[in-house]
Amino acid sequence: MSISDLYSSGTHKKNISHFANIVRLAMVDNIITEGEQKLIDQLAKRLEIDQVEYKDIIKNHHKYPINPSVSYNERIERLYNLTIMIFADDLVTAEQVSLLQRIIIGLGFPQDNAEKVGDEALHLVMNDNNLEDFTKAIKKVNRI
C-alpha cells in the first residue's frame, strides 16, 4: 500500500466519522426531517460516502467513533457542518445541544471551553454567518 493510499484511507475514515456525527445529531429525536435529509444527502456527496456506507451509517450511526482531524481549521469546518445540522429542521433541542457539546470535545476542543464554543457556534449559525466568519469567531472564542 502506498503512502497516498494510506492518506486517502485515513481521510475517508475521518469523513465517515464526521458523516456519522451529522447523522447522530439528526437522529437525536429518531426522525430525519426533510431539511435534515437534504443536508445529509449533500454532505454524503461532498464527503464521498458511497451507498453501502450511507445505509450502514444511517442504520448504525452509534458504532462510528469521533475521529477528529489534525487540522484546526478542518475541525472548525466540521463544527460548522454539525451546527448547521442542528438548525436543519428549525427546531433546536436540548438533546442536540448536549450531543454537540460531547462531539465538540471529541473533535479536540478543550473540555473546559466546549460549552462556550458550542454556544458561539449555535449563535453564529443562527445568525447565518458563513464558514469564514464562523471560523474567525470560533478562533477568538477558543483561543488556544
Describe the structure in your own words:
With 144 residues, the protein is an all-alpha fold. The chain has one domain (3-141). Helix content is 69%, strand content 0%. The protein contains 7 helices and no strands. The model is unreliable at 1-8 (pLDDT under 50).
Q: What's the pLDDT, averaged over the residues? A: 90
- Rg (C-alpha, Å): 15 Å
Share of residues in helices: 55-70%
Which runs of at least 5 residues are low in confidence (pLDDT < 50)?
1-8
Number of strands: 0
Order of helices and strands: HHHHHHH
Q: Describe the largest sheet.
A: none
Number of domains: 1
Strand content bin = under 5%
Shape: globular
**Structural class of the secondary elements?**
mainly alpha
Observed structural traits:
144 residues, mainly alpha, 7 helices, 0% strand
Kindly summarize this structure in a few lines.
By secondary structure, the protein is mainly alpha-helical.
